[in-house]
Design goal:
The protein is an alpha+beta fold. The protein has 2 domains: about 230 residues, P-loop containing nucleotide triphosphate hydrolases (Rossmann fold, 3-Layer(aba) Sandwich); about 120 residues, Nucleic acid-binding proteins (OB fold (Dihydrolipoamide Acetyltransferase, E2P)). Helix content is about 25%, strand content about 35%. The strands form 4 sheets. The chain has a 6-stranded mixed sheet with strand order 6-7-8-3-9-10, with helices on both faces. The protein has a 5-stranded mixed β-barrel with strand order 11-12-13-20-14. Strands 15-19-16-17-18 form a 5-stranded antiparallel sheet, with no helix packed on it.
């Protein structure tokens, strides 16, 4: 088993002006061989964390460790870290081969060994035979694959990627996500990846750190993050989310009653709002609510369809329900599709366990 604290941020603050902290008291552990994504809106501190790890920024307070060594005194080029940035382009005047051999030459690796490493890195990204091309002769996706190969060519302990697929179109972006994920699985290098694209984070990562306001709000596996968000920010930021505002009117065991601003009462799961009188925002994933449920569910309410949006494999319904006219339901498009049209009244049910009483927004 590798090092569980391979990358470690210990109480790290970062301020650019001495007043405002862009990263606050950050504690974060990344295990060897993990693929961890830092996800969050712009300005949340995720890229700053990556830049401190790379050595382009210095923490204002706290320490960063790499493999049990404090790295603040080690200059970037000596940290043994591979990097792929969206704007950290290839050297335009060098061939693909020269681009890949560059980090090896800097490390004084003999030419015959360097040739082998370049071959191996190019085969990882399926670009054998492209050695003599210039970057300008490659498509955007090929250039990005060369950049990925260059970050791996010297067998780094750690690879940092900052929005590396940001400039690519949707299909190419998706195939590159799988490609990077497969490279990670096959060579087991530790990857720290930054993105603001939640689907990308869910697809690629072992764990995701959701950043907001300079702090990690939650660090969990993709399914845990989606199914069990710990606060309203995470619930809203990852996936689609239906919300209701209200106040806890009663708590018994693992259920609480919440009186909504519309006056109705629903049963919920007391995650953050645990005591009578607590203000709360309720979070419920669209796919957890069913139309005319066959099995008994402990929340059943009538709603009216406001809008029907066809999405290929499913149809989205916007429903007016319990004072929220933006409530979203997803109905799979199977052959026995229900008669759903705007204006129709429907019964909607869901279980209180899926209905999380979180902090008020």
């Amino acid at each position: 088993m590798g090092n569980d604290h391979f990358v470690r941020f210990e109480n790290v603050d970062k301020s650019y002006d001495g007043k405002q902290l862009v990263v606050k008291g950050l504690d974060l552990d990344i295990a060897e061989g993990e693929f961890v994504t830092m996800l969050g809106p712009s300005g949340s501190g995720k890229t700053t964390c990556l830049m401190m790890l790379a050595g382009f920024e210095t923490p204002t307070n706290g320490q960063i460790y790499l493999d049990n060594k404090v790295i603040s005194d080690i200059p970037p080029h000596k940290r043994g870290i591979g990097m792929v940035f969206q704007n950290y382009a290839l050297f335009p005047h060098m061939t693909v081969y020269e681009n890949l051999a560059f980090p090896l030459r800097v490390r004084k690796i003999p030419k015959d060994e360097a040739d082998k490493k370049v071959d191996k890195a190019l085969s990882m990204v399926s670009l054998q035979g492209f050695e003599a091309r210039m970057p300008m002769q490659l498509s955007g996706g090929q250039q990005q694959r060369v950049a990925v190969a260059r970050s791996l060519v010297f067998d780094p302990q750690l690879v940092l990627m900052d929005e590396p697929l940001g400039a690519l179109d949707k299909n190419l972006r998706e195939s590159m996500q799988y490609e990077i994920k497969h490279i990670h699985e096959s060579i087991g290098v530790t990857v720290v990846y930054v993105t603001h694209d939640q689907t990308e984070a869910l697809t690629m990562s072992n764990r995701i750190a959701v950043f907001n306001d300079g702090k990690v709000q939650q660090l969990s596996s993709p399914d845990e993050l989606y199914e069990r968000p710990v606060n309203s920010f995470v619930a809203e930021f990852i996936g689609e989310n239906n919300t209701f505002a209200g106040e806890v009117s009663d708590v018994s065991g693992d259920k609480c009653k919440v009186k909504l601003t519309s006056g109705s009462e629903i049963l919920a799961n007391p995650i953050v709002a645990k005591a009578k009188g607590d203000k709360t925002t309720i979070s419920l994933r669209p796919e957890r609510a069913l139309i005319d449920p066959e099995t008994k569910m402990d929340n059943n309410h009538k709603g009216k369809i406001e809008e029907v949006i066809y999405h290929g494999d499913h149809t989205r319904l916007r429903v007016d329900l319990l004072g929220n006219n933006q409530f979203i339901l997803k109905v799979p498009n199977s052959s026995n599709r229900m008669d759903i049209k705007a204006g129709k009244e429907i019964n909607i049910g869901w279980n209180s366990v899926d209905c999380r009483a979180l902090d008020p927004k």
